[in-house]
Amino acid sequence: MELAEIGIKFALVAIIFGISLVVAMYSTYAERKIAAFFQDRVGPNRAGPFGILQPLADGAKMFLKEEIIPTNATPFLFIVGPSLAILTACIASAVIPWGQNVVIAGKTIPLQVTDINVGILYIFGVVSLGVYGVMIGGWASNNKYSLLGAIRAASQNISYEISMGLSIIALLLVTGTLSLGEIAQQQHGWHWNVIYQPVGFILFLICAFAETNRTPFDLPECETELVGGYHTEYSSMKLGFYLFAEYINMFISSAVMVTLYWGSYNYPGMDFMNELLGTTWGPLFGFAVMFFKVLLFIFFFMWVRWTIPRFRYDQLMDLGWKVLIPLAIANIVVTAVVITFLK
Amino acid sequence: MSTFYFIAFLSIFFSILVISAKSPVHSILYLILTFFTFTIHYILMNAQFLAIVNFIVYMGAILVLFLYTLMLINLNKDSEPVKPFMVKLAAVFGAGILMVALVSSLKLSGASAPVVLTNPNLGLVKNLGKVLFNEFLLPFEVSSVLLLSAMVGAVLLATKDPKEPKATI
Protein backbone atom coordinates (compact mmCIF):
# COMPACT_ATOMS: atom_id res chain seq x y z
CA MET A 1 0.00 0.00 0.00
CA GLU A 2 1.42 3.35 -0.95
CA LEU A 3 1.75 6.24 1.45
CA ALA A 4 -1.08 8.31 -0.07
CA GLU A 5 -3.50 5.42 0.35
CA ILE A 6 -2.58 5.02 4.01
CA GLY A 7 -3.05 8.77 4.45
CA ILE A 8 -6.53 8.56 2.89
CA LYS A 9 -7.47 5.66 5.16
CA PHE A 10 -6.30 7.60 8.20
CA ALA A 11 -8.31 10.63 7.12
CA LEU A 12 -11.37 8.43 6.61
CA VAL A 13 -10.97 6.84 10.03
CA ALA A 14 -10.57 10.27 11.62
CA ILE A 15 -13.67 11.60 9.84
CA ILE A 16 -15.84 8.62 10.82
CA PHE A 17 -14.56 8.81 14.39
CA GLY A 18 -15.32 12.52 14.51
CA ILE A 19 -18.79 12.03 13.04
CA SER A 20 -19.69 9.31 15.50
CA LEU A 21 -18.52 11.43 18.43
CA VAL A 22 -20.46 14.48 17.25
CA VAL A 23 -23.56 12.40 16.58
CA ALA A 24 -23.29 10.82 20.03
CA MET A 25 -22.83 14.26 21.58
CA TYR A 26 -25.85 15.73 19.88
CA SER A 27 -27.87 12.58 20.55
CA THR A 28 -27.82 13.54 24.22
CA TYR A 29 -29.24 16.92 23.27
CA ALA A 30 -31.77 15.37 20.89
CA GLU A 31 -32.81 12.86 23.53
CA ARG A 32 -33.62 15.60 26.01
CA LYS A 33 -35.40 17.71 23.43
CA ILE A 34 -37.45 14.75 22.21
CA ALA A 35 -38.29 13.76 25.78
CA ALA A 36 -39.40 17.32 26.39
CA PHE A 37 -41.54 17.23 23.24
CA PHE A 38 -43.22 13.98 24.29
CA GLN A 39 -43.86 15.26 27.79
CA ASP A 40 -45.01 18.71 26.67
CA ARG A 41 -42.05 20.55 28.16
CA VAL A 42 -39.46 22.92 26.68
CA GLY A 43 -36.26 20.98 27.36
CA PRO A 44 -32.77 22.48 27.60
CA ASN A 45 -32.86 26.05 26.26
CA ARG A 46 -30.31 28.05 28.28
CA ALA A 47 -26.91 27.36 26.68
CA GLY A 48 -26.88 29.10 23.30
CA PRO A 49 -29.88 29.50 20.96
CA PHE A 50 -32.41 26.67 21.59
CA GLY A 51 -29.89 25.22 24.06
CA ILE A 52 -27.71 24.07 21.18
CA LEU A 53 -24.52 24.36 23.24
CA GLN A 54 -25.90 22.14 26.00
CA PRO A 55 -23.79 19.04 25.01
CA LEU A 56 -20.61 21.14 25.22
CA ALA A 57 -21.62 22.40 28.65
CA ASP A 58 -22.38 18.85 29.76
CA GLY A 59 -19.04 17.64 28.43
CA ALA A 60 -17.14 20.38 30.26
CA LYS A 61 -19.03 19.55 33.43
CA MET A 62 -18.15 15.85 33.10
CA PHE A 63 -14.45 16.62 32.66
CA LEU A 64 -14.30 19.04 35.58
CA LYS A 65 -16.09 16.82 38.12
CA GLU A 66 -14.11 15.19 40.87
CA GLU A 67 -12.60 11.83 40.01
CA ILE A 68 -13.67 9.26 42.60
CA ILE A 69 -12.35 5.71 42.83
CA PRO A 70 -13.97 3.85 45.76
CA THR A 71 -11.59 2.53 48.42
CA ASN A 72 -12.58 -1.09 48.01
CA ALA A 73 -12.70 -1.06 44.22
CA THR A 74 -10.06 -2.72 42.03
CA PRO A 75 -8.44 0.48 40.71
CA PHE A 76 -7.03 -0.84 37.42
CA LEU A 77 -10.17 -2.70 36.36
CA PHE A 78 -12.30 0.21 37.53
CA ILE A 79 -10.62 2.31 34.82
CA VAL A 80 -10.51 -0.51 32.25
CA GLY A 81 -14.33 -0.92 32.34
CA PRO A 82 -15.39 2.41 30.81
CA SER A 83 -12.35 2.45 28.51
CA LEU A 84 -13.33 -0.91 27.09
CA ALA A 85 -16.94 0.23 26.69
CA ILE A 86 -15.96 3.26 24.61
CA LEU A 87 -13.33 1.32 22.64
CA THR A 88 -15.71 -1.41 21.51
CA ALA A 89 -18.31 1.22 20.66
CA CYS A 90 -15.86 3.05 18.40
CA ILE A 91 -14.24 0.17 16.50
CA ALA A 92 -17.44 -1.29 15.04
CA SER A 93 -17.78 1.48 12.45
CA ALA A 94 -14.70 0.24 10.54
CA VAL A 95 -16.58 -2.15 8.26
CA ILE A 96 -19.68 -0.09 7.52
CA PRO A 97 -19.89 1.13 3.90
CA TRP A 98 -20.86 4.80 4.05
CA GLY A 99 -21.27 5.34 0.32
CA GLN A 100 -20.16 4.44 -3.19
CA ASN A 101 -16.62 5.14 -4.32
CA VAL A 102 -15.92 8.85 -4.51
CA VAL A 103 -13.66 10.24 -7.22
CA ILE A 104 -11.71 13.26 -5.95
CA ALA A 105 -8.99 14.78 -8.17
CA GLY A 106 -8.78 11.62 -10.30
CA LYS A 107 -8.42 9.33 -7.29
CA THR A 108 -11.04 6.73 -6.43
CA ILE A 109 -11.70 6.62 -2.71
CA PRO A 110 -13.94 3.94 -1.20
CA LEU A 111 -16.11 5.32 1.58
CA GLN A 112 -15.48 2.28 3.73
CA VAL A 113 -12.46 1.84 5.95
CA THR A 114 -12.05 -1.86 5.24
CA ASP A 115 -14.18 -4.38 3.35
CA ILE A 116 -13.20 -7.63 5.06
CA ASN A 117 -15.12 -10.60 3.74
CA VAL A 118 -16.50 -11.47 7.18
CA GLY A 119 -17.84 -7.96 7.83
CA ILE A 120 -21.10 -8.98 9.51
CA LEU A 121 -19.33 -11.41 11.79
CA TYR A 122 -16.84 -8.71 12.73
CA ILE A 123 -19.66 -6.44 13.89
CA PHE A 124 -21.20 -9.34 15.72
CA GLY A 125 -17.89 -10.06 17.47
CA VAL A 126 -17.41 -6.46 18.53
CA VAL A 127 -20.96 -6.34 19.87
CA SER A 128 -20.38 -9.47 21.93
CA LEU A 129 -17.18 -7.93 23.29
CA GLY A 130 -19.06 -4.81 24.36
CA VAL A 131 -20.52 -6.52 27.40
CA TYR A 132 -17.06 -6.84 28.99
CA GLY A 133 -16.92 -3.09 29.57
CA VAL A 134 -20.11 -3.27 31.63
CA MET A 135 -19.18 -6.50 33.40
CA ILE A 136 -15.65 -5.50 34.38
CA GLY A 137 -16.77 -2.06 35.51
CA GLY A 138 -19.65 -3.49 37.52
CA TRP A 139 -17.50 -6.09 39.20
CA ALA A 140 -14.55 -3.78 39.91
CA SER A 141 -16.82 -1.26 41.69
CA ASN A 142 -17.23 -3.72 44.58
CA ASN A 143 -20.85 -2.73 45.03
CA LYS A 144 -23.79 -5.12 45.12
CA TYR A 145 -25.99 -3.00 42.90
CA SER A 146 -23.23 -2.59 40.34
CA LEU A 147 -22.60 -6.33 40.35
CA LEU A 148 -26.29 -7.08 39.86
CA GLY A 149 -26.40 -4.61 36.98
CA ALA A 150 -23.34 -6.19 35.41
CA ILE A 151 -24.79 -9.69 35.74
CA ARG A 152 -28.06 -8.57 34.21
CA ALA A 153 -26.19 -6.98 31.32
CA ALA A 154 -24.25 -10.18 30.68
CA SER A 155 -27.24 -12.51 30.66
CA GLN A 156 -29.32 -10.08 28.61
CA ASN A 157 -26.63 -9.61 25.98
CA ILE A 158 -25.94 -13.32 25.62
CA SER A 159 -29.64 -14.16 25.33
CA TYR A 160 -30.35 -11.56 22.68
CA GLU A 161 -27.15 -12.21 20.74
CA ILE A 162 -28.53 -15.64 19.84
CA SER A 163 -31.69 -14.39 18.19
CA MET A 164 -29.69 -11.58 16.57
CA GLY A 165 -27.34 -14.15 15.04
CA LEU A 166 -30.24 -16.29 13.89
CA SER A 167 -31.98 -13.33 12.25
CA ILE A 168 -28.71 -12.54 10.43
CA ILE A 169 -28.48 -16.13 9.17
CA ALA A 170 -31.82 -15.70 7.37
CA LEU A 171 -30.47 -12.48 5.85
CA LEU A 172 -27.33 -14.26 4.69
CA LEU A 173 -29.47 -16.85 2.89
CA VAL A 174 -30.90 -13.97 0.85
CA THR A 175 -27.66 -12.07 0.21
CA GLY A 176 -25.21 -14.97 -0.12
CA THR A 177 -22.29 -12.93 1.18
CA LEU A 178 -20.87 -11.82 4.53
CA SER A 179 -19.26 -8.65 3.18
CA LEU A 180 -21.15 -5.49 4.12
CA GLY A 181 -19.86 -3.70 1.01
CA GLU A 182 -21.42 -6.30 -1.28
CA ILE A 183 -24.66 -6.36 0.70
CA ALA A 184 -24.93 -2.60 0.26
CA GLN A 185 -24.34 -2.90 -3.50
CA GLN A 186 -26.90 -5.66 -3.92
CA GLN A 187 -29.68 -3.44 -2.59
CA HIS A 188 -29.39 -1.06 -5.54
CA GLY A 189 -32.71 -0.32 -7.23
CA TRP A 190 -35.34 -1.12 -4.59
CA HIS A 191 -33.90 -4.55 -3.71
CA TRP A 192 -33.89 -3.48 -0.10
CA ASN A 193 -33.50 -6.45 2.19
CA VAL A 194 -36.32 -5.31 4.46
CA ILE A 195 -38.73 -6.26 1.65
CA TYR A 196 -37.36 -9.82 1.57
CA GLN A 197 -36.75 -10.14 5.31
CA PRO A 198 -39.44 -8.18 7.21
CA VAL A 199 -39.55 -10.61 10.14
CA GLY A 200 -35.77 -10.78 10.27
CA PHE A 201 -35.60 -7.01 10.40
CA ILE A 202 -38.05 -6.76 13.31
CA LEU A 203 -36.12 -9.43 15.22
CA PHE A 204 -32.86 -7.61 14.54
CA LEU A 205 -34.39 -4.33 15.65
CA ILE A 206 -35.61 -5.76 18.95
CA CYS A 207 -32.23 -7.38 19.58
CA ALA A 208 -30.46 -4.13 18.74
CA PHE A 209 -32.51 -2.41 21.45
CA ALA A 210 -31.48 -5.11 23.90
CA GLU A 211 -27.82 -5.06 22.90
CA THR A 212 -27.54 -1.29 23.29
CA ASN A 213 -29.29 -1.45 26.70
CA ARG A 214 -31.97 0.97 25.58
CA THR A 215 -35.45 1.16 27.04
CA PRO A 216 -37.54 -1.07 27.17
CA PHE A 217 -34.51 -3.32 27.80
CA ASP A 218 -32.43 -1.06 30.05
CA LEU A 219 -32.60 -3.47 32.99
CA PRO A 220 -28.83 -3.25 33.74
CA GLU A 221 -29.32 0.35 34.87
CA CYS A 222 -32.84 0.03 36.22
CA GLU A 223 -32.81 2.80 38.83
CA THR A 224 -35.96 1.72 40.65
CA GLU A 225 -34.30 -1.56 41.67
CA LEU A 226 -30.55 -1.07 41.36
CA VAL A 227 -29.84 2.60 42.28
CA GLY A 228 -27.90 3.22 39.07
CA GLY A 229 -27.02 -0.26 37.87
CA TYR A 230 -23.51 -1.05 36.75
CA HIS A 231 -22.34 2.56 36.87
CA THR A 232 -23.56 3.34 40.40
CA GLU A 233 -20.02 4.00 41.67
CA TYR A 234 -18.83 5.94 38.65
CA SER A 235 -18.44 9.67 38.49
CA SER A 236 -16.83 12.26 36.27
CA MET A 237 -15.75 11.35 32.72
CA LYS A 238 -15.71 7.62 33.46
CA LEU A 239 -19.47 7.81 33.89
CA GLY A 240 -19.47 10.03 30.83
CA PHE A 241 -17.75 7.29 28.82
CA TYR A 242 -20.40 4.76 29.76
CA LEU A 243 -23.21 7.10 28.76
CA PHE A 244 -21.34 8.15 25.63
CA ALA A 245 -20.70 4.54 24.63
CA GLU A 246 -24.44 3.92 24.74
CA TYR A 247 -25.09 6.74 22.29
CA ILE A 248 -22.28 5.66 19.96
CA ASN A 249 -23.65 2.11 20.07
CA MET A 250 -27.04 3.49 19.14
CA PHE A 251 -25.53 5.33 16.17
CA ILE A 252 -23.56 2.28 15.01
CA SER A 253 -26.47 -0.12 15.36
CA SER A 254 -28.67 2.31 13.41
CA ALA A 255 -26.00 2.39 10.70
CA VAL A 256 -25.82 -1.43 10.70
CA MET A 257 -29.60 -1.72 10.39
CA VAL A 258 -29.65 0.77 7.52
CA THR A 259 -26.82 -1.10 5.79
CA LEU A 260 -28.27 -4.56 6.24
CA TYR A 261 -31.97 -3.91 5.73
CA TRP A 262 -32.82 -0.41 4.58
CA GLY A 263 -30.84 -0.12 1.38
CA SER A 264 -27.68 1.44 2.81
CA TYR A 265 -26.75 4.46 0.65
CA ASN A 266 -29.22 3.50 -2.09
CA TYR A 267 -32.26 5.64 -2.76
CA PRO A 268 -34.88 5.84 -5.51
CA GLY A 269 -33.65 7.76 -8.56
CA MET A 270 -30.05 7.13 -7.62
CA ASP A 271 -28.65 6.57 -11.12
CA PHE A 272 -30.27 9.79 -12.35
CA MET A 273 -28.85 11.78 -9.44
CA ASN A 274 -25.39 10.26 -9.92
CA GLU A 275 -25.37 11.35 -13.58
CA LEU A 276 -26.57 14.81 -12.63
CA LEU A 277 -24.08 15.40 -9.80
CA GLY A 278 -21.04 13.61 -11.22
CA THR A 279 -18.73 11.09 -9.57
CA THR A 280 -17.71 13.33 -6.68
CA TRP A 281 -20.95 14.79 -5.41
CA GLY A 282 -23.21 11.86 -6.39
CA PRO A 283 -21.72 9.38 -3.90
CA LEU A 284 -21.49 12.12 -1.28
CA PHE A 285 -25.22 12.73 -1.76
CA GLY A 286 -25.69 8.98 -1.25
CA PHE A 287 -23.77 9.33 2.00
CA ALA A 288 -26.10 12.15 3.04
CA VAL A 289 -29.11 9.94 2.28
CA MET A 290 -27.66 7.14 4.37
CA PHE A 291 -26.95 9.58 7.17
CA PHE A 292 -30.54 10.78 7.05
CA LYS A 293 -31.79 7.19 7.38
CA VAL A 294 -29.46 6.66 10.33
CA LEU A 295 -30.81 9.78 12.02
CA LEU A 296 -34.36 8.50 11.51
CA PHE A 297 -33.39 5.29 13.31
CA ILE A 298 -31.81 7.24 16.17
CA PHE A 299 -35.06 9.18 16.45
CA PHE A 300 -36.90 5.86 16.53
CA PHE A 301 -34.70 4.68 19.41
CA MET A 302 -35.61 7.81 21.37
CA TRP A 303 -39.26 7.64 20.42
CA VAL A 304 -39.47 4.13 21.87
CA ARG A 305 -37.60 5.17 25.00
CA TRP A 306 -40.14 7.84 25.88
CA THR A 307 -43.16 5.74 24.89
CA ILE A 308 -42.72 2.20 26.19
CA PRO A 309 -42.06 1.39 29.87
CA ARG A 310 -39.36 -0.97 31.00
CA PHE A 311 -39.87 -4.76 31.01
CA ARG A 312 -39.78 -6.85 34.14
CA TYR A 313 -36.68 -9.04 34.21
CA ASP A 314 -38.46 -12.39 33.78
CA GLN A 315 -40.52 -10.93 30.92
CA LEU A 316 -37.29 -9.90 29.25
CA MET A 317 -35.89 -13.43 29.43
CA ASP A 318 -39.19 -14.98 28.33
CA LEU A 319 -39.31 -12.68 25.31
CA GLY A 320 -35.73 -13.49 24.36
CA TRP A 321 -35.81 -17.24 24.74
CA LYS A 322 -39.43 -18.24 24.19
CA VAL A 323 -40.56 -15.79 21.53
CA LEU A 324 -37.64 -14.36 19.58
CA ILE A 325 -35.50 -17.50 19.18
CA PRO A 326 -38.34 -19.78 17.92
CA LEU A 327 -39.49 -16.97 15.64
CA ALA A 328 -35.96 -16.52 14.28
CA ILE A 329 -35.60 -20.27 13.63
CA ALA A 330 -38.98 -20.36 11.87
CA ASN A 331 -37.85 -17.39 9.80
CA ILE A 332 -34.70 -19.26 8.74
CA VAL A 333 -36.68 -22.36 7.76
CA VAL A 334 -39.26 -20.40 5.77
CA THR A 335 -36.55 -18.36 4.01
CA ALA A 336 -34.57 -21.47 3.14
CA VAL A 337 -37.64 -23.29 1.77
CA VAL A 338 -38.72 -20.29 -0.32
CA ILE A 339 -35.22 -19.78 -1.73
CA THR A 340 -34.88 -23.48 -2.59
CA PHE A 341 -38.17 -23.52 -4.48
CA LEU A 342 -37.61 -20.26 -6.31
CA LYS A 343 -34.20 -21.24 -7.66
CA MET B 1 7.85 -14.56 11.22
CA SER B 2 8.86 -12.16 13.99
CA THR B 3 5.18 -11.26 14.39
CA PHE B 4 4.44 -14.90 15.01
CA TYR B 5 7.09 -15.17 17.71
CA PHE B 6 5.89 -12.00 19.38
CA ILE B 7 2.26 -13.20 19.44
CA ALA B 8 3.33 -16.67 20.54
CA PHE B 9 5.29 -15.09 23.38
CA LEU B 10 2.20 -13.11 24.39
CA SER B 11 0.01 -16.24 24.31
CA ILE B 12 2.38 -18.10 26.63
CA PHE B 13 2.89 -15.07 28.84
CA PHE B 14 -0.86 -14.55 29.34
CA SER B 15 -1.51 -18.25 29.87
CA ILE B 16 1.11 -18.28 32.65
CA LEU B 17 -0.67 -15.29 34.17
CA VAL B 18 -3.96 -17.23 33.98
CA ILE B 19 -2.66 -19.87 36.36
CA SER B 20 -0.60 -17.58 38.56
CA ALA B 21 -3.19 -14.82 39.13
CA LYS B 22 -4.46 -14.66 42.71
CA SER B 23 -8.04 -13.62 42.00
CA PRO B 24 -10.12 -15.98 39.84
CA VAL B 25 -11.73 -13.05 38.04
CA HIS B 26 -8.30 -11.73 37.05
CA SER B 27 -7.39 -15.15 35.82
CA ILE B 28 -10.46 -15.21 33.56
CA LEU B 29 -9.53 -11.79 32.22
CA TYR B 30 -6.06 -13.08 31.34
CA LEU B 31 -7.72 -16.06 29.69
CA ILE B 32 -9.68 -13.61 27.52
CA LEU B 33 -6.40 -11.99 26.47
CA THR B 34 -4.95 -15.43 25.72
CA PHE B 35 -7.88 -16.21 23.44
CA PHE B 36 -7.44 -12.84 21.78
CA THR B 37 -3.85 -13.75 20.89
CA PHE B 38 -5.21 -16.99 19.39
CA THR B 39 -7.47 -14.88 17.19
CA ILE B 40 -4.41 -12.99 15.96
CA HIS B 41 -2.70 -16.32 15.23
CA TYR B 42 -5.61 -17.36 13.04
CA ILE B 43 -5.50 -14.05 11.18
CA LEU B 44 -1.75 -14.51 10.60
CA MET B 45 -2.56 -17.87 9.03
CA ASN B 46 -5.16 -16.21 6.77
CA ALA B 47 -8.00 -18.16 8.44
CA GLN B 48 -10.43 -15.25 8.76
CA PHE B 49 -13.50 -17.31 9.51
CA LEU B 50 -11.87 -19.31 12.29
CA ALA B 51 -10.46 -16.10 13.72
CA ILE B 52 -13.81 -14.37 13.89
CA VAL B 53 -15.61 -17.47 15.20
CA ASN B 54 -12.98 -17.87 17.90
CA PHE B 55 -13.57 -14.22 18.71
CA ILE B 56 -17.36 -14.50 18.90
CA VAL B 57 -17.77 -17.91 20.49
CA TYR B 58 -14.85 -18.09 22.91
CA MET B 59 -14.20 -14.46 23.79
CA GLY B 60 -17.72 -13.19 23.35
CA ALA B 61 -19.85 -15.98 24.76
CA ILE B 62 -18.10 -18.74 26.67
CA LEU B 63 -15.78 -16.52 28.68
CA VAL B 64 -18.63 -14.11 29.45
CA LEU B 65 -20.41 -17.08 30.99
CA PHE B 66 -17.25 -18.03 32.92
CA LEU B 67 -17.00 -14.51 34.26
CA TYR B 68 -20.72 -14.50 35.01
CA THR B 69 -20.48 -17.67 37.08
CA LEU B 70 -17.36 -16.52 38.91
CA MET B 71 -18.97 -13.24 39.85
CA LEU B 72 -21.85 -15.12 41.47
CA ILE B 73 -19.66 -17.48 43.47
CA ASN B 74 -18.15 -16.03 46.59
CA LEU B 75 -14.53 -17.13 46.30
CA ASN B 76 -12.25 -15.97 49.05
CA LYS B 77 -9.75 -17.24 51.60
CA ASP B 78 -12.37 -18.51 54.07
CA SER B 79 -14.18 -20.75 51.61
CA GLU B 80 -11.00 -22.18 50.09
CA PRO B 81 -10.46 -25.82 51.10
CA VAL B 82 -7.31 -26.43 53.15
CA LYS B 83 -4.94 -28.77 51.30
CA PRO B 84 -2.65 -30.97 53.38
CA PHE B 85 1.09 -30.92 52.77
CA MET B 86 1.17 -34.45 51.30
CA VAL B 87 -1.39 -33.53 48.63
CA LYS B 88 0.71 -30.54 47.59
CA LEU B 89 3.82 -32.72 47.44
CA ALA B 90 2.02 -35.32 45.32
CA ALA B 91 0.81 -32.60 42.94
CA VAL B 92 4.31 -31.20 42.48
CA PHE B 93 5.74 -34.69 41.96
CA GLY B 94 3.03 -35.62 39.43
CA ALA B 95 3.49 -32.40 37.47
CA GLY B 96 7.27 -32.95 37.43
CA ILE B 97 6.85 -36.45 36.02
CA LEU B 98 4.48 -35.11 33.37
CA MET B 99 7.03 -32.48 32.36
CA VAL B 100 9.81 -35.09 32.08
CA ALA B 101 7.55 -37.25 29.90
CA LEU B 102 6.63 -34.33 27.65
CA VAL B 103 10.20 -33.12 27.26
CA SER B 104 11.52 -36.59 26.45
CA SER B 105 8.75 -37.26 23.94
CA LEU B 106 9.44 -33.91 22.26
CA LYS B 107 13.16 -34.68 22.17
CA LEU B 108 12.68 -38.13 20.67
CA SER B 109 10.24 -37.16 17.95
CA GLY B 110 11.85 -35.51 14.98
CA ALA B 111 10.61 -32.20 13.66
CA SER B 112 7.67 -32.84 11.37
CA ALA B 113 7.81 -31.49 7.85
CA PRO B 114 5.83 -28.24 7.55
CA VAL B 115 2.44 -28.71 5.94
CA VAL B 116 2.18 -26.75 2.71
CA LEU B 117 -1.38 -25.77 1.91
CA THR B 118 -2.41 -26.41 -1.67
CA ASN B 119 -4.76 -23.45 -1.44
CA PRO B 120 -3.53 -20.56 0.72
CA ASN B 121 -7.04 -19.11 0.83
CA LEU B 122 -8.52 -22.22 2.43
CA GLY B 123 -9.48 -20.28 5.55
CA LEU B 124 -11.84 -17.88 3.76
CA VAL B 125 -15.52 -18.48 4.40
CA LYS B 126 -16.41 -19.62 0.91
CA ASN B 127 -13.66 -22.25 0.64
CA LEU B 128 -14.14 -23.45 4.19
CA GLY B 129 -17.87 -23.87 3.64
CA LYS B 130 -17.32 -25.87 0.45
CA VAL B 131 -14.85 -28.18 2.16
CA LEU B 132 -17.07 -28.65 5.21
CA PHE B 133 -20.23 -29.42 3.26
CA ASN B 134 -18.63 -31.65 0.61
CA GLU B 135 -15.65 -33.57 1.92
CA PHE B 136 -16.47 -33.53 5.61
CA LEU B 137 -20.26 -33.49 5.52
CA LEU B 138 -20.78 -36.58 7.70
CA PRO B 139 -18.42 -35.61 10.56
CA PHE B 140 -19.89 -32.11 10.47
CA GLU B 141 -23.46 -33.37 10.82
CA VAL B 142 -22.50 -35.92 13.47
CA SER B 143 -20.89 -33.19 15.56
CA SER B 144 -24.18 -31.28 15.42
CA VAL B 145 -25.89 -34.33 16.95
CA LEU B 146 -23.29 -34.23 19.70
CA LEU B 147 -24.15 -30.61 20.43
CA LEU B 148 -27.86 -31.45 20.43
CA SER B 149 -27.36 -34.21 22.97
CA ALA B 150 -25.33 -31.84 25.16
CA MET B 151 -28.16 -29.33 25.00
CA VAL B 152 -30.79 -31.95 25.91
CA GLY B 153 -28.60 -33.02 28.82
CA ALA B 154 -28.31 -29.44 30.07
CA VAL B 155 -32.07 -28.94 29.90
CA LEU B 156 -32.61 -32.23 31.73
CA LEU B 157 -30.22 -31.17 34.50
CA ALA B 158 -31.83 -27.76 34.82
CA THR B 159 -35.48 -28.90 35.03
CA LYS B 160 -36.63 -30.12 38.39
CA ASP B 161 -38.20 -33.54 38.70
CA PRO B 162 -41.92 -32.94 39.38
CA LYS B 163 -42.23 -36.26 41.24
CA GLU B 164 -39.54 -35.28 43.71
CA PRO B 165 -41.06 -34.28 47.05
CA LYS B 166 -40.68 -30.62 47.86
CA ALA B 167 -38.18 -29.75 50.54
CA THR B 168 -39.86 -28.93 53.81
CA ILE B 169 -38.77 -25.73 55.42
Quick take:
Chain A: It is a multi-pass membrane protein. Chain A is mostly helical.
Largest beta sheet of chain A, briefly? 2 strands, antiparallel
Morphology of chain B: extended
Amount of helix of chain B? over 70%
CATH-defined fold name of the domain at 1-76 in chain B: Four Helix Bundle (Hemerythrin (Met), subunit A)
Q: What is the beta-strand fraction of chain A?
A: under 5%
Subcellular location (chain A): Cell membrane; Membrane
Family (chain A): Belongs to the complex I subunit 1 family.
Transmembrane segments (chain A): 6-26, 76-99, 119-141, 162-184, 190-210, 241-264, 284-303, 323-342
Pfam families (chain A): NADHdh (PF00146)
What order do the helices and strands come in, and which of them pair?
The complex is a heterodimer of chains A (343) and B (169).
Chain A: H1 3-38, H2 54-64, H3 75-91, E1 102-104, E2 107-109, H4 119-140, H5 144-175, H6 180-186, H7 193-196, H8 198-211, H9 223-226, H10 236-260, H11 270-305, H12 313-342
Antiparallel strand pairs in A: 1-2
Chain B: H1 2-20, H2 24-44, H3 48-72, H4 85-108, H5 125-134, H6 137-158
Main location (chain A): membrane
InterPro entries (chain A): NADH_UbQ_OxRdtase_su1/FPO, NADH_UbQ_OxRdtase_su1_CS
Enzyme class (chain A): translocase
What does this structure look like?
- The complex is a heterodimer of chains A (343) and B (169).
- Chain A has 343 residues and is mainly alpha-helical.
- Chain A has twelve helices and two strands.
- Chain A has one domain (3-342).
- In chain A, strands 1-2 form a two-stranded antiparallel ribbon.
- Among the domains of chain B are: 1-76, Up-down Bundle (Four Helix Bundle (Hemerythrin (Met), subunit A)), CATH 1.20.120; 121-162.
- In chain B, helix 1 packs antiparallel against helix 2 (24-44).
- The longest helix of chain B has 25 residues, at 48-72.
- Chain B is extended and about 55 Å long.
- The chains are: A mainly alpha (343), B mainly alpha (169).
